[in-house]
Design brief:
By secondary structure, this protein is mostly helical. It contains 6 helices and 2 strands, in the order E-E-H-H-H-H-H-H. It has one domain.
Length: about 90
């Protein structure tokens, strides 16, 4: 995976310090931290409340990455995330 992801022609970029967590999730099916879980589950309110300043400013890059670059079955809802990491319980993340 690239060390950063930037939306073509924009200022939004996924910070380099977040790419390892995304790589672990996408490639190795490892459950990420709460901020990335909110992004992956399509929880905008949760994403915004859990983001640090840099991630908050770059939320469009995360949305674009998971929509355009990541495998289709790995994001979009809590159910998809749980299936991706192999967790089928209904316990909140």
């Amino acid at each position: 995976m690239k060390t950063t992801f930037q939306i073509r022609g924009s200022r939004y970029v996924i910070p380099g310090y977040m790419t390892k967590a995304i790589e672990r999730y996408v490639e190795h099916h490892v459950r990420p931290g709460r901020f990335l879980q909110a992004v992956i589950c399509n929880d905008l309110k949760g994403s915004m409340s859990l983001a640090d300043d840099e991630n908050f400013a770059n939320l469009p890059a995360y949305i674009a990455f998971f929509h355009n670059e990541a495998p289709g079955g790995c994001s979009g809802s809590p159910k998809k995330m749980k299936e991706w990491v192999g967790i089928m319980s209904e316990d909140p993340a």
